[in-house]
Amino acid sequence: MNNRSETRQLLVDTAERIFADLCDKPLLDAAERGEFPRRLWDTLRENGFHELAMRSSGVPLGDAFAVIQTAARHAVPLPLAEVLLANRWLDASDRFVTIGLARGDTVIDAPWARMADAALALDPAGNTLVPMARSAAAAVATGSNLAGEARDVLGAAQKAAPIDPGEPAYELLALARTVAIAGVLQRLLALALQYANEREQFGRSISKFQAIQHNLAIVAGEVAAASRAADAAIDALGDARFVLEVAAAKARVGEAAGIVAEIAHQVHGAMGYTHEHQLHHFTRRAWAWRDEYGNEAYWQQRLGRHLAGVGADGLWNFLATRG
Amino acid sequence: MLQFDRIALPPETEALRGEVRGFLAESGAHLARPNSDFTTGHDPAFSRKLGARGWIGMTWPKRYGGGERSFFERYVVTEELLAAGAPVSAHWIADRQSGALLLRFGTEAQRERYIPGITRGETYFSIGMSEPNSGSDLASVRTSARPVDGGWVVNGTKLWSTDAHRNHFMIALVRTEPPSDNRHAGLSQIIVDLKNDGVRIRPIRNIAGGEDFNEVVFEDTFVPADRVVGAPGNGWKQVTSELAYERSGPERFLSAFRVFVELVRAAGAQPTPAQAALIGRLASHIMTLRRMSISVAGMLEEGKSPEVEAALVKELGNNFEKQLPELARLVFADRLPAPAHERFRQAFTDTLLLSPSFTIRGGTREILRGVIARGLGLR
After folding, report:
1. What residues of chain A lie within 8 A of the CB of B83, using their CB?
2. Quick one: pLDDT at residue A323?
3. How many CB pairs under 8 A join A and B?
4. Which of B45, B67, B44 has the alpha carbon at shortest distance from B56?
5. Which of A49, A260, B74, B134 is buried deepest, with most CB atoms within 10 A?
6. Claim: this prediction has a pTM higher than 0.90
7. Which CATH architecture has domain B127-234?
8. Which strand (E) or helix (H) includes residue A132?
9. What number does CATH give the domain B242-375?
10. How many CB atoms neighbour CB B22 within 10 A?
11. Band (A273; pLDDT cuts 50, 70, 90)
12. Which residues are A163's β-sheet partners?
């Protein structure tokens, strides 16, 4: 292990400890009821995690995505990716700034805009971000995605001059969802394995039934593929092929998400279908995140149109470029 | 959790890739009907050309004719050959596993006798594992080798031995001791000379109309003592050690690749949304499978034996290559114009008819899932 990967591991371990301590089932349920996880947020800020992706931090951007994946393994109900990237693009970290999609004069799908000082309205077509302050004049409509994560609409108010992020903003947010899906799928595999080993029926652990074993083998394959795809996209940061690598990765993990969530529920039986069980905090995130920042069809078509331009005789060269 | 480390091919492999592509560009005569399936296309002249280039036995010691190159370099050569649809069947098994097995467990005399010919692309091996009543349950093989003066007398039948009617040797898994409570004990691997030992070889026609795999019958066949690989009784350990080599390579997800190429050609520069989505989807799978497969090559390079990881790559890869033609046919609602129709149709037909074998050969889907489940600690 080289120094760079050791530093990343240290960072991930620190984040892991914070999330394991503070992000439990009651906190997830409270967040879903609209209660902002203040203590967790403050702890992350005290440890400097909110500044991780800033160019002044000296930390490789890939490390920030490794932390985003760690947070996803715990279903952390905070807009970590949005805050990290907003602070990066604003080159400031004193305020709480989230990111959503520009729709007319409003910002939609902005995580926790109700709590934020401002939201950046992302226009993918122009790759610009318009800062919009949350104020008394700006109406906030609270909402949530299918995982119960805060996704708000911020009305038109106090627009500042557009920011040029200097890098593909939509694709970086798509990468954030990609690595997060891989993280949540890793957790689903662990939960399914644990449950299959503990649960007994017909006088033995259900993990001893071949039908269950084969389903879990499918899950392991999809999780391994999702993890490798997400890692490859992180490794492509700053590369000329970055956008296409994100396309391939988001499409691949999106496919894995549906398969893994389905089997994880099947293994857990009716227990996993209850709100009381923690499983749904992870499966619903997998389902929600595959649709955020471009679903499989969107990214498959983007990649596919590019390859149609490359043509049949250049196809292999494209696929075999970059180990 | 099963880990596939972020290993990239070393940059120096790119020069080699260029050499292979240059070679393929001049090999038109051998690529008249490209097929990415590794069992299709038995072309000794082509294999000898590869041998002359140093592209067989690439990772083996130079004193036996090998190249002492890395698993990554071997990876690049094999994936380029498969992607181009080159005829690699003749030397494939010898290069992938038989030579590696002899290097690891064979005697010095065996290495000197067989390996240089393999690296020249002149000596070809077949696998002798399955039998009429031993498929997935390999330990139940009944072909027996009875010790006699100066060697062994073999009786029994091997099945599904690809190219046994064309190749020179087979490494057969045989029972050298009667079955006991330990069903993995008493098995040995012996080298059978398919041309000279007097075995009866009957090609078996497959659903594609090809005659690639065979039944090989032993009737009191004498095999000299010096053809036992490794120690008698060590067969099970040896045969399972081949599996990481056998299961993780690019041939486990590229078998249908030529259909993908013709799909892109037929869809043209302005694909429909469904065509574009499928092209992107297939690409996203190949890019990921390839990286997982390269991770396994990296583990082999480090001297590890990643059998579970290899099984996982094969399982995912076989399902993908099996699905590829199924998905491709549905993005063309109308008959394609000629000659796109002929090109796509030929690649599709050739591949679809082979596709049932993808999830059977080299370990069935069900066996692989069992191996993965064991790796997960479930059994």
Report:
1. 316, 320
2. 65
3. 171
4. B67
5. A260
6. yes
7. Beta Barrel (2.40)
8. strand A128-133
9. 1.20.140.10
10. 10
11. very high
12. A129
